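Figure-free illustration: sequence to structure, shown twice.
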Amino acid sequence: MQNFDPSQPDGFNQTMDSSVSADGLPIIAERYTVPARSGVAVYLATGQTLTITNPTGWQVCDFWAFNAAELHEYMSMSHVHTDLLSVFPKVGDSLVSNLRNPLLTLTQDSSPGVHDTTIAACDANRYKQLGVPHYHENCADNLRQALLVIGQKAPLVPAPFNLWMNVPVAPDGSLAWAAPVSKPGEAITFKAEMPVYAVMSACPQDVTPVNGDEGQPSALEFVVHEG
């Protein structure tokens, strides 16, 4: 642990070949793909919007945002909970940072709005706990790689906004794994309230029903528009 570097992944995958550009700057209105089990980071200027589409309907997207000028400021789910007094962000809600500044606003959601803000990103140790004997692609490493490939370093792996992930919260506070309720082609849109790096991971989870009962991770799509 003495030489631990939070920006360095435990393994590599297609994420290293999937960047939109060398610095994360997208072509406006160009439709991009986040390959299954991989991640992509994209730069958003203030006022630009990012629309993420779920082509299959069952694919979860682990989603992060970092202040582009200072990556130690990042979208924080615990601060979002405090700001919204809710664990379920909805259209019109601001998504704040660990410094309580608005990073993004959720502006559109064509799905039923079932997303998760309670569960940590999967990582190498999580798959060991699930009995996987070898290295398994994971969202934590997808985040690290997606930033590295555009010349940035993750200062840590924050808890993500898990788009389309269905984790029912029972009255007694217990959680459960359930398949997504979203349908093919549903999409969610965010507006940048400051320059940010947004990072998307097409979650590789294939042991629990996070990505549907069949456990078959699939690709996501996204597009950036001017505000």
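We now fold a second protein in the same way, so the two outputs can be compared directly.
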Amino acid sequence: MDLTVAAEAFVDHLERVRRLSPATAKAYRSDLRDLHAAANGMHLEDIDLETLRDWLWRATQRGDARSTLARRSAAARSFFRWAQEQGLIAHDPSLRLIAPKKGHALPTIASRDSMSTLLDAHRAAAEDGDPIALRDHAILEVLYGSGVRVSELCGLDIDDLDLDRATARVLGKGAKERIVPFGVPARDALSAYLSRGRPALVVRSRSFTPAVILGSRGARIGPRTVYQLVARVLAPIVGAETIGPHALRHTAATHLLDGGADLRAVQEILGHASLGTTQIYTHVSAERLTATYRLAHPRA
């Protein structure tokens, strides 16, 4: 069977049955296409362990990150296990495929003071009523105030907001719904945007949309636009050229823990399936504490 045909059926299974996020399904599709290219068009039943190991070795030689290699290993193992369950292959060649261990680099975050300065500047810029400035201020306040993923922000509809309680209903990974608080500053920014900014953007669209955050043409905003905004405003603060909306999620989680929030509560707010995923932020907080100690204590 052609590998690409089987891969598309597998990705469809991920989206429809396992309800994985579109981003995860897209990444797996890309990984399997890369495997097909590395295997020189071999058929599904001809792929063996040596082929898979050679594929990962080539990725290593290209300089792919360990996290990318680990994801590709996971994609291959999941795909071939599914293919065997479907009767497409007799034996699973990925059973002895070893995934490289992921690196333990701590996430990039911004300081409390720098975030206050950044958000104050965008609030001031929005005071003249420009719809894009109002929108951008709301985006930054919500991302930092709630720690939501960019896909969750882009997917927000008007009915998902409860401004009285300063909460939003978001649809996370695996189509899991949760309620997240976003705080008073984000509520105020959203209120200003919804009353003065969004109406000006709605009229630019040819059709109605229930989306909260709109693009310049009045349609639901896309993740790429949000990424570009966050990259532009955060890069000078954190000193990294490649930075995206997830940095605000990292920053929100770290500042919550620094302020004394319970780890389980942060897990619920972020929508992490595993507490282990949330625990990385305790390492960030511990590292910041150690740095402060070394600077301040005479016997450090």
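Summary for the second example: The domain at 112-294 is CATH 1.10.443.10 (hpI Integrase; Chain A).
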